[in-house]
Amino acid sequence: MSAAEAASRRSRLRLVVVQALVFSLFATLFVRLYYLQVVSGEQYTAQAANQSVRDIVVQPQRGLIVDDMGRPLVTNRTAWVVSIDRSMLEKMTEPQQDKLVERVAQVTGVRAAMIRKRLVTCGEEGSVVGACWNGSPYQPVPVATDVDQSVALRVLEQPEDFPAVLAEQQTVRNYPRPYGVNLAHVLGYLSPITEDELDAAEEDEDDSVNGASSVGRAGVEKQYDAWLRGMPGYRSVAVDSMGRVLGDDGEVEATPGATLVTSIDARVQGLVEKELAGAIAQARTETDTVTGRKYEADSGAVVVMEAGTGRVVAMASQPTYDPGVWVGGITKKQLARLYSEAAGTPLLGRATQGQFAPGSTWKPFMTAGAMTNGYGPDTRLACSSGFQVGNRVFKNYESGAYGHIGFDKALEVSCNTFFYRIGYDYWQRFGSDVDDVDAKDPLVEEAKVFGFGDETGIDLPGEASGRIADRSWKRAYYDSMKDYYCGIADKPQDAKTSDFVYRFAREFCIEGFAYRAGDAVNFAIGQGDTIVTPLQLARAYGALANGGTLWEPRIGKAIVDPNGRTIKEIKPKKAGTVGLPKSVLSYVDNALKGVAANDQGTMNWKLLGFPLDQVQIRAKTGSAEVYGKQSTSWVASYTDDYVVVMMVSQGGTGSGRNGDSIRRIYEALYGVEGSTVDPRKAFIPGSKPPAELPTFTADGSILPPGRRDAGDSDATAGQKEGDR
């Protein structure tokens, strides 16, 4: 074969190979196309369809919060919300986006910088905690809540000026304020869920929250959040390639949250808040005779509790704030004020979080401790004008003296020197060795038995524990602070350090750990470093009233589902007993009756003419001295049914500041007018948690079917009474 023929043959062979390769490629392509279009056609068609359907979360209506008679304390209302659809926004050019954001900022009043922060998904680069968006990337992002209707209508009527901007109605919290109640520290508030909380919910497979949820942050809104929040729904919408909604593709309805029925009585709460505010305002017009200054009366609290169950009927704190300030998002300026010391730290609820020296309201518990540790009803000690410990004389109030008296008279006239002697006696017998941290102290032990130094267990978050300033506490405090004070003492005194501070620092550095006789006598009358919350004191007095049971205070009373069925009854819970003999409890009880009824009783002058034979009030007053401040005024009291504790920080004497208010509260609770008792006029006629969801009445209250406020003659009578 010639060379030419061989070359021609190789060319034909290559052509055949190329043709076979091309044919095989076409065959493979054809088979693949057949598989995609015929075999798997339905599957891919469905997937393509799904890509044009988006799920939008439908937030549920949060459950109501009502008082024990069904009056609304927290409800919901509709509000206009302006949102931006980021999927549509991203299809615009950057200049167009900037113009749109500026336009939205102008009409809503929200700063453009804040809108931009809200449009960033949490966790992405540039996201700002507290401002970023936690929800679905397909969910329109709310940038302005509770805007005027005129703003919403402008957005809706001018879509060409506001592309990608939506305006729709959503529910937000509302505060009807029956009888003018504030109740901010009990109710609490909501704020958007955080990224960490959302991650935790996803780990727990909790479907009740999502990135757009708001959750309880304080008060019963937080404590009962799981019941109140409800279950979100989902709405599927069909969209085109530009992200514009074409129509609904299906919906799973949201489930509203349950209603929380509380033990709070709005009528009593309204009166209590008014009395507390009035006492503080009056104090600020009067002069402290010791300092010559007007009373600062910087804070205060009142607790009204059922003695036999621990249920809280009313609880007020000052300073307070408008709970509605959180609706729609709180500003930095508003938040700063809530934490501001200059404004009195309004966010701090004094009833459960405020901690104050109890003063003479402490003495009934010291009496119980002494009468079960060597002393008795026949004990007689000198109530002298002063009692010397070392080189210091501890005095009675206004240096009063009553001779040799028993515990009953000592409580009645609030004799300090009587209790100084008891505290000093125990210190001498058991604790004169200042290095013995574990020395026996019957008074300290009794205070712990009554629950002081520990949280009460109330169903509110953030409760303070108070403090029993015993030997262990003093040693621990010394260990934590000795470097600081020794640092002051080791240097020459400068112009910024007062003589007192410099002298105190030197003494503390050397022996700040020592529990001396002065500490013991101060403890016996509720002075020194021991502090309690008003709620702790109310619970302890409740134990005196009910025969020795310590209850965990309760705000919640029942949970009612959206269909009106009671799905959970929140029952009172016993925390323990004080274990005192009935004879001791009876003795203390009779002594405290004398404080209210006998001529020399420190509360008697405020109860003249009150029908004490029908409504037996037991009381103890107190004026706790605080270094560098004016006295903290206290009245702790109880009847067979209720405990009422009231205090005003830097307010003066106990009964002088609080006595009139305490009287008016009992008059309202029992229907007292002058010297007569009319149960029909009592603010609380007695009720149980409603078995069905309450309904609105003409005056805006929610009452159980067939129930009306006692004494109301028409639909608005109750409100007028509460505003009086």
UniProtKB/TrEMBL annotation:
Pfam families (UniProt xref): PBP_dimer, Transpeptidase
Family indicated by similarity: Belongs to the transpeptidase family.
Subcellular location: Cell membrane; Membrane
Entry's transmembrane regions: 12-35
The Penicillin-binding protein transpeptidase domain, residue ranges: 300-656
Region named Disordered: 684-724
Name of the protein in its database record: Penicillin-binding protein 2
Penicillin-binding protein dimerisation domain residues: 58-246
